[in-house]
Amino acid sequence: MKKSSEGMAIGPHGPLMAVMGFTLIELMVVVAVVAILVSVAIPSYSDAVRKGKRGQAKADLVEAAQIAERYKTVNGTYTGLSAGTTSADEITPQSPKTGTADYVIATSGTPDATTFKLTATPQAGQAKDRCGTLSIDQAGVKKHSTGDDSQCQFGTTGS
Hints:
This protein is an alpha+beta fold. It has helices spanning 24-75, 149-152; strands spanning 2-3, 9-11, 14-15, 94-95, 103-107, 117-122, 134-137, 142-144, 156-157. It is rod-shaped.
């Protein structure tokens, strides 16, 4: 190929201009790769968010059990224990304690003189959490309603 005095290549129909840019195929490949990455990343991110909210609920449920023990120490019974107000002596009825509830914390059944069971039931988007409802009783027995024990890390599967 011939070159002009400026160093540009000269083709049969005049000077060849350097073409800059991407072809449609190259752009389509990039879009496809990005779509694949997003389809993998979003479920992983959502699962990590649910796991974090579950961790908060587990901590709040254990704290609620400690409040129940203080209640029994003062009153000599679990009778009358309930989730309701947000005072220091009462069990906060949700997790997290402020803002939108990801879990509802409540007594399961009616606490009697010697026993209680507290549950944290997932709400809204957290309802898709693999561990389901979390619970703890007066003996400190922790359970989750669904999921694998190693993934939930909160006692054993059961009700």
